[in-house]
């Protein structure tokens, strides 16, 4: 292993010794200076994960979270200088992390939190004015082929746990008492202006929005979804500036 590779590996894995061949310009002990640098790197990566996954940290406790994050860092060091993207596989890691197996919903809460990170950093897009959307919906001549372009920050999560309720409880420092933790929820994550918003959807509404996001015309997307409240779902998308493009497909 080259000195550079050994240096990078030892930065991530605190169990490894200071790499051979290091020198200090002022005569200080290289191992001591390396230990300080490594501690700073470790703390920065753990803090980056804590910033992205605050509810996960609240659920498991800060001490447990930092210990778990340190193990994650050893197994999956950063591959990009963009710290906002670090931890994209943290939820999958949590799902396989044996010490947390008794709290299975934590992994999906982590998935929800990472979608919020993605939404926050998504590209900006100008929403269609509500009156223009309403006019398009009211035109029977083009309604059949009407398609929506949705905001790039929009993401969906289907979970077997009450992830939206769990996440929301921790925004107001509420307990999880009274929440049916094993009652699955479908989450919509969307940035509206500068605010990242999270909503719970019916299963049919989640499927419908997926169809829209895949380019299906409005009516076809509704027909290909389980029963849901179409008017309520469209009102949600319009009110929260999720529709950024209106196009019309020629029907056969």
From TrEMBL:
The keyword Secreted does not apply. Keywords: DNA-binding. InterPro entries: DUF2063, DUF2063_N_sf. Residues 3-94 form the Putative DNA-binding domain. GO terms for molecular function: DNA binding. It comes from the Bacteria. This is DNA-binding domain-containing protein. The lineage of its organism: Bacteria, Pseudomonadati, Pseudomonadota, Gammaproteobacteria, Pseudomonadales.
């Amino acid at each position: 292993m080259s000195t550079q590779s050994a240096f990078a590996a030892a930065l991530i894995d605190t169990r490894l010794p200071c790499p051979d061949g290091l020198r200090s310009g002022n005569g200080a002990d290289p191992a001591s200076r390396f230990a300080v640098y490594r501690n700073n790197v470790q703390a920065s990566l753990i803090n980056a994960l804590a910033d992205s996954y605050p509810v996960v940290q609240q659920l498991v406790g800060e001490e447990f979270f930092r210990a778990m994050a340190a193990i994650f860092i050893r197994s999956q060091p950063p591959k990009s200088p963009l710290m906002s993207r670090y931890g994209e596989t943290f939820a999958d890691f949590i799902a396989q992390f044996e010490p947390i197996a008794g709290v299975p919903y934590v992994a999906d809460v982590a998935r929800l939190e990472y979608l919020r990170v993605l939404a926050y950093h998504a590209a900006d897009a100008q929403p269609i004015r509500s009156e223009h959307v309403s006019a398009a919906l009211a035109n029977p001549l083009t309604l059949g082929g009407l398609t929506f372009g949705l905001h790039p920050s929009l993401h969906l999560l289907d979970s077997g746990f009450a992830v939206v309720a769990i996440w929301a409880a921790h925004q107001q420092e509420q307990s999880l008492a009274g929440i049916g933790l094993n009652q699955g929820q479908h989450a919509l994550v969307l940035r509206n202006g500068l605010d990242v918003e999270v909503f719970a959807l019916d299963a049919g509404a989640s499927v419908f929005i997926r169809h829209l996001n895949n380019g299906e015309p409005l009516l076809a997307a509704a027909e290909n979804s389980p029963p849901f409240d179409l008017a309520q779902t469209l009102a949600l998308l319009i009110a929260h500036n999720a529709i950024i493009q209106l196009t019309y497909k020629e029907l056969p």
